[in-house]
Specification:
about 240 residues; about 65% helix; 12 helices; mainly alpha; signal; 2 domains
Length: about 240
């Protein structure tokens, strides 16, 4: 399956060929995908340690949404940051930097101390993380397939309607003329936005409701695209 279709609602963590490991990753992915429905912060560090051990960080297509998901959970639980950092200090050394960046990106009070001392990161990793640019999926218009993944990660953590609406807005963009600069990327973006909306309408009542709300107010091309997504989701 290409990176285009690796969205959160379709077993984001199916990265292993061994059947048992794959089943474990699917279960971990389901927990993440539906977190906003049943928040369980007390299970979060165990879940992240298990996800790391099962290989969830191995591919960028899963790694970066996972880091954004972690960022959002930290933002919603800033008082737990210091203890969570201690709980995650035992995570695989190859994945510590990803966890460190998530703390840094969350900008919670415990973030700086976590990155600089508590996680046990190398000096070079600390320097890279502390000089990195923070990423806010809701503060920018999506321009890459990765941006769409990040918006779904935000939605999985928070249920935030704004994340879904930004994906819907991609469908309202004018279709590019064939051969023009950026036309291929735009076609891929629109295709990915529609596919992921269709998939998530099937699996998330909240997404279906957000899409239905937009269908009522929209017209023209966007209304047609949303009608098709809803129709496809029912097949």
């Amino acid at each position: 399956m290409s990176r285009l279709f690796k969205f959160l609602s379709i077993s984001l963590f199916c990265l292993c060929s061994v059947a048992h490991a794959q089943e474990s990753l699917q279960q971990l992915g389901e927990w993440m995908s539906h977190y906003y429905e049943k928040p369980a912060p007390d299970q979060f560090t165990k879940w992240l340690n298990d996800a790391s051990a099962a290989g969830a960080f191995e591919k960028p297509s899963a790694r970066f949404p996972l880091m954004i998901f972690t960022t959002e959970i930290l933002k919603m639980n800033p008082d737990k940051g210091a203890q969570w950092c201690k709980d995650l200090a035992t995570i695989s050394s190859t994945n510590k930097a990803y966890v460190g960046w998530s703390f840094y990106n969350s900008n919670i009070p415990a973030a700086e101390q976590c990155v600089q001392t508590q996680l046990g990161l190398s000096d070079s990793d600390v320097k890279k993380i502390m000089s990195a640019t923070r990423y806010d999926a809701l503060a920018k218009e999506p321009s890459t397939l990765g941006d769409l993944d990040m918006l779904w990660a935000v939605f999985s953590a928070t249920g935030n309607e704004a994340a879904v609406n930004k994906i819907i807005d991609v469908l309202a963009r004018p279709s590019p003329e064939k051969g023009t600069e950026g036309s291929v990327n735009m076609l891929l973006m629109k295709g990915a936005a529609k596919w992921s909306l269709t998939s998530n309408i099937r699996q998330h009542t909240r997404v279906a409701g957000i899409v239905q709300k937009r269908r009522v107010t929209e017209s023209g091309v966007l209304k047609k695209e949303l009608d098709e997504a809803v129709s496809n989701a029912s097949k």
